[in-house]
């Protein structure tokens, strides 16, 4: 149960549900000495390659929905955002220098993912739309069976990307979820990857060993020995010594959208979230030990583009907040949430596509919460209390630049799934008792709430919602603490700032 303790006036013990209950927190004066310092852009974006121009635009067109939603995050968090451009459609690129548009994907009948993506020089116009301090990771094609064609494609694209972005280019990523059925094994993969990376490095920087590449990009590993494709096995077999690796990354999802039993309460279960993040901890620790940051380079709720009624609801936003904040207690340095046009787990869909309308979806609100929690950066996190359906985090400042860390905020998340069709008078509440050592009377409480976990509407953070054009509506109305405790209803989260 963590450092705190709880009681329930009425408990359903087998389900871990409280109708009315309380959590008392034992808050340490400082975080553990080994806690990493979190960047304010810790929750980042990953955009499926074919969707890149939908989420950005070109030199003559930009979608105000995209612009407003991105600017909201920047305004609240006070920092830049990061975008990784990649995914499986990034393995389908074909260069056409005469293409009169930036990108031309070809879709099989009935599919929401292309089987061929033609790209040309006008693709670079997409980088002019998001704020000019945006950092980019650009994914490039990688496929053993068509090596010569793909090297030609990459060597045409990479210099253009660098010339366009300059310092905004964080890294290149070669390939997406490679390794399945690769008969040459890890040594063959490493040899091929190094050939690709050195060719790109030479074409862009005129040297073969520029430290500007993400490595890995495999689907979540199932083992950690030399027979598995993981960032550790490829680093140990030659990539670490190459001088090319800037960041190690793995792709992680909570499960598959094709699994009928996966529902909102599966996502809204801290034990499931903790288990998924903890599975990455050995790789993150390994990468950290050799001086290479470790990221979840592509992640979200359920693979297969998400599940309707689960990935696109408010419940998914609460899951995402828990997922991000728990990851912040490990050596994972950033999470890139994958987005695609018309996909269910996206924070928003920029245009109508595949039968789904354009507009904001539930997980977008997780960015507003985490942006506020991470504002200013250099934060450290501790789990103060956790069980299956309730978790609280301590957020500390100043510990990264001095030995005088102090608590700045507490984030508390009630993960009990509440159905909006139920009588709101029966909605369970857990009260968080604030320790007397903290100045509760001057604290501000910002609430992330909605009528229920299953809704896609009526979602607010700090009493503010989001209009159809992506602008914030309403006036921020932070709450005060009058009796030393804060109520957190089922399917709600609060950020308490002291």
TrEMBL record:
Q: Which UniProt keywords apply?
A: Signal
- Residues annotated as domain Beta-glucuronidase C-terminal: 392-495
* Listed name of the protein: Beta-glucuronidase C-terminal domain-containing protein
- Note whether Signal occurs among the keywords: yes
For this protein, the record's Gene3D superfamilies field holds: Glycosidases (3.20.20.80), Golgi alpha-mannosidase II (2.60.40.1180)
Q: Which domain of life is it from?
A: Eukaryota
Q: Which Pfam families match?
A: Glyco_hydro_79C
Could you say which residues form the signal peptide? 1-22
């Amino acid at each position: 149960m963590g450092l705190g303790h709880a009681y329930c006036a009425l408990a359903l013990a087998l389900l871990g549900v409280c109708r009315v209950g309380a959590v008392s927190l034992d808050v340490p004066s400082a975080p553990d000495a080994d806690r990493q310092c979190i960047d304010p852009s810790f929750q980042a974006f990953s955009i499926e390659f074919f969707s890149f121009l939908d989420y950005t635009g070109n030199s003559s067109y930009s979608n105000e929905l995209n612009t407003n939603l991105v600017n909201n995050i920047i305004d609240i968090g006070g920092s830049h955002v990061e975008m990784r451009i990649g995914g499986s459609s990034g393995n389908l690129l074909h260069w056409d220098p005469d293409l009169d548009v930036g990108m031309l994907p070809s879709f099989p009948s009935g599919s929401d993912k292309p089987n061929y993506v033609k790209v040309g020089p006008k693709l670079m116009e997409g980088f002019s739309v998001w704020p000019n301090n945006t950092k980019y990771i650009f994914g490039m094609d990688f496929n053993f069976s068509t090596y010569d064609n793909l090297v030609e494609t990459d060597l045409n694209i990479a210099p253009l990307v660098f010339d366009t972005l300059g310092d905004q280019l964080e890294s290149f990523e070669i390939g997406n979820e490679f390794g399945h059925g690769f008969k040459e094994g890890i040594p063959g993969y490493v040899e091929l990857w190094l050939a690709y990376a050195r060719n790109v490095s030479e074409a862009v920087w005129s040297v073969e060993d520029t430290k500007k590449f993400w490595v890995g990009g495999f689907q979540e590993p199932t083992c950690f020995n030399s027979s598995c494709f993981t960032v550790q096995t490829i680093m140990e077999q030659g990539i670490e010594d190459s001088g090319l690796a800037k960041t190690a990354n793995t792709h992680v999802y909570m499960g598959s959208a094709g699994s009928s039993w996966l529902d909102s309460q599966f996502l809204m279960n801290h034990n499931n979230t903790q288990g998924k993040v903890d599975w990455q901890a050995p790789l993150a620790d390994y990468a950290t030990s050799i001086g290479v940051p470790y990221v979840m380079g592509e992640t979200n709720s359920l693979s297969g583009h998400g599940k309707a009624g689960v990935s696109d609801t408010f419940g998914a936003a609460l899951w995402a907040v828990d997922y991000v904040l728990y990851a912040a207690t490990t050596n994972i340095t950033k999470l890139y949430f994958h987005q695609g046009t018309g996909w269910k787990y996206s924070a928003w869909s920029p245009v109508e596509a595949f039968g789904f309308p354009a507009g904001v979806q539930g997980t977008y609100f997780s960015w507003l919460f985490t942006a506020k929690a991470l504002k200013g950066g250099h934060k450290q996190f501790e789990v103060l209390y956790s069980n299956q359906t309730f978790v609280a985090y301590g957020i500390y400042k100043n510990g990264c630049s001095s030995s005088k860390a102090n608590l700045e905020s507490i984030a508390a998340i009630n993960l009990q799934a509440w159905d909006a069709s139920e009588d709101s008078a029966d909605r369970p509440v857990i009260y968080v008792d604030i320790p007397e050592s903290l100045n509760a009377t001057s604290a501000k409480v910002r609430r992330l709430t909605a009528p229920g976990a299953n809704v896609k509407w009526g979602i607010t953070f700090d009493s503010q919602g989001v209009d159809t054009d992506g602008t914030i509506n309403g006036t921020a109305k932070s709450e005060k603490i009058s009796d030393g405790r804060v109520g957190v209803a089922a399917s709600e989260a609060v950020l308490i700032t002291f």
